[in-house]
Design goal:
mainly alpha, elongated
Length: 154
């Protein structure tokens, strides 16, 4: 059974019907036997038209993508704010729970003092860490480009 397959070693030549300036029959919008000449100006016009279509499509795609990202960013910010509020409520609940748990052991004033001192200690440690981080940033900008790697606070 013989198959009609092209020779894989043959070098493909140019298609004679697709050459610039080549006379072709059956152009769109004309009689099938009427020849037409494809010119460089028509090819450049088609290329410019295709480029404008591509630009319009790409611009619309990027605009849609930016709108989607903006909507997702608003959602992320709203959920982040809700998460922060819930964490603060949990911290208040923990504080009240510690007070209630410590009152039978060290009286109401003692429990309040212990909880307030622990919270102030944690706040002081956070402020110290923030000052260290800000000092590291400040020294990095004051000394030049390689200061961040050389700083002992990193």
């Amino acid at each position: 059974m013989a198959t009609n397959t092209p020779d894989p070693t043959a070098v493909p030549g140019p298609d004679p019907e697709d050459q610039p300036g080549q006379r072709q029959k059956g152009s769109p919008g004309s009689a099938p036997d009427e020849p037409f000449v494809r010119t460089l100006a028509e090819d450049m016009g088609a290329l410019a038209s295709d480029a404008l279509n591509y630009f319009d499509a790409e611009f619309a795609f990027q605009k849609t993508r930016a709108r989607l990202a903006g909507n997702r960013l608003v959602t992320a910010i709203a959920l982040g704010i809700v998460a922060i509020v819930l964490v603060l409520l949990a911290a208040v609940g923990l504080t009240i729970g510690l007070l209630i748990a410590l009152i039978p052991i060290v009286t109401a004033w003692g429990a309040t003092a212990i909880v307030v001192l622990v919270l102030l200690l944690l706040a002081w440690l956070c402020v110290r860490g923030a000052r260290r981080a800000l000092g590291s940033i400040k020294s990095a900008f004051a000394q030049g480009d390689g200061a961040l790697e050389d700083s002992p606070h990193v």
